[in-house]
Specification:
Elements lengths: L8 E10 L2 E11 L4 E5 L6 H8 L7 E6 L2 E2 L4 H5 L2 E4 L11 H11 L4 H15 L14 H13 L5 E5 L7 H16 L3 E5 L3 H4 L4 E6 L2 E6 L1 H5 L6 E7 L1 H9 L4 E7 L2 E6 L4 H14 L3 E7 L4 H15 L2
Parallel strand pairs: 3-8, 3-9, 6-7, 7-8
Antiparallel strand pairs: 1-2, 1-4, 4-5, 9-10, 11-13, 11-14, 12-13
Helix pairs in contact: 3-4, 3-5, 4-5
Length: 317
C-alpha cells in the first residue's frame, strides 16, 4: 500500500460503554483522502462519542483506530496531530479578538510564532474572516463563530477534519458557505468526517453511515443508501392533505406516511405498490378526500432513514 492509499481514518470494531449503556457498539469505518463521510442518526445514536473516540478524547473499551496510518493507541500525540476537531459546542474566548483566539489555539498546538503568524492570516482569509480579525469573538454572529471554530481546527494543517454537526443553528446561506469551504478542503486531500441532521448535507458526502444505539446500521454512497427502498415509495397529491394522510395510514400495505411539502410519501410493504396504487384513489373518495395524483417515485434519503429508525426501534426492547 502506497502512502497515497493509506486511509485518513481506519477504525475497526470500536466499542465504548458508559455503565450498562453501549454508546458505540462494534463500529467500523474507513475515510480516504479527499473524501467526506457523513454520520447520520438520531440524538443519542453515538455520533459524538464516535468522534471523541477517533480523536483520543475518550478511551476505547476495545477496537483500533489508525489516523493516516498511525496507531492511536501506540502513538497518541502524533496521531492526534493529524486531526482538526470542531465539536458541537466550540469554546472560544469572547473577550479576545478573532486573531487572538486563533493565536491561542495555534500556540496550544505548539506552532512557533513564525508559523502561526502567516498561517493565521492565510486561514482567516480562507474561512472569510480576514476583515474581522480584530473583532471580539463575543460580537460574532453564530455563523461567524462556526467559521472561527473551523479556522482553529485547521490552524495546524491537519489531514483529517472531524466536524460534529457544524452547521446546526445557522441559516441556510451560512450552511451553504460552510460547505463550500469543506469542498475546497476535500480538493486539497483532507479527509472530512461530519455528523449532520440535514439530509441535503448528507447527500453531499461521498459515503454515509446511519447510526442508531451505537451501531452502524447501513453504509454506502448516498445513491446506494437511497436505493434501499426503490419500488416501495409512492408520491401522493390531493386534498385535503391532512385527511389524505390519515386515510393512507390505515390502508393495507402502507407502512408509513410522511409529509414532503405539498405532497405525501407513502412507504409500502414489499410487493404491495401496485395494489396500493390501484386501491387508494377509490378508498379516498369513499372517505371524502381526493387523490389528484399517485405514482411511484425514487426513494430519498429521508425515506430510508425514517425506515431504518423505525425498524431499529421495533427491534429494541
Amino acid at each position: 500500500m502506497t502512502t497515497q492509499d493509506v486511509p485518513r481514518i481506519l477504525a475497526q470494531d470500536l466499542r465504548r460503554a458508559f455503565g450498562p449503556t453501549s454508546a458505540v457498539d462494534g463500529l467500523s469505518l474507513r475515510l480516504d483522502a479527499g473524501q467526506a463521510y457523513g454520520l447520520v442518526g438520531p440524538d443519542g445514536a453515538g455520533k459524538t462519542t464516535t468522534m471523541r473516540l477517533l480523536c483520543g478524547a475518550l478511551a476505547l473499551d476495545s477496537g483500533t483506530v489508525h489516523l493516516d496510518g498511525i496507531d492511536l493507541a501506540h502513538d497518541l500525540s502524533r496521531a492526534r496531530a493529524q486531526i482538526g476537531y470542531l465539536p458541537q459546542r466550540f469554546s472560544m474566548y469572547g473577550e479576545l479578538t478573532v486573531r487572538e483566539n486563533l493565536r491561542f489555539f495555534a500556540e496550544v498546538r505548539g506552532l512557533p510564532a513564525q508559523d502561526w503568524t502567516t498561517r493565521s492570516l492565510e486561514i482567516l482569509e480562507f474561512v472569510g474572516l480576514g476583515e474581522f480579525a480584530d473583532r471580539r469573538a463575543e460580537a460574532l454572529s453564530g455563523g461567524m463563530r462556526q467559521k472561527l471554530g473551523l479556522a482553529a481546527a485547521l490552524i495546524h494543517r491537519p489531514r483529517i477534519l472531524l466536524l460534529d454537526e457544524p452547521t446546526s443553528g445557522v441559516d441556510p446561506v451560512t450552511r451553504q458557505g460552510f460547505w463550500q469551504l469543506i469542498i475546497r478542503l476535500l480538493a486539497e486531500g483532507v479527509g472530512v468526517l461530519v455528523s449532520t441532521p440535514y439530509m441535503d448535507e448528507a447527500a453531499r458526502c461521498h459515503r454515509l453511515g446511519f447510526m442508531s444505539h451505537g451501531k452502524l446500521l447501513v453504509e454506502g454512497s448516498p445513491a446506494e443508501v437511497a436505493h434501499r427502498l426503490d419500488g416501495r415509495v409512492l408520491e401522493v397529491m390531493g386534498e385535503p392533505l391532512r385527511g389524505l394522510a390519515q386515510m393512507a395510514r390505515v390502508e393495507s400495505g402502507v407502512e408509513a406516511v410522511q409529509l414532503f411539502g405539498d405532497r405525501l410519501h407513502l412507504r409500502v410493504a414489499p410487493g404491495k405498490a401496485e395494489a396500493v396504487l390501484e386501491r387508494l384513489p377509490e378508498a379516498a373518495l369513499e372517505r371524502g378526500v381526493r387523490v389528484d395524483r399517485i405514482r411511484p417515485v425514487a426513494s430519498e434519503l429521508e425515506d430510508v432513514f425514517i425506515e431504518l429508525l423505525e425498524s431499529e426501534s421495533a427491534r429494541t426492547p
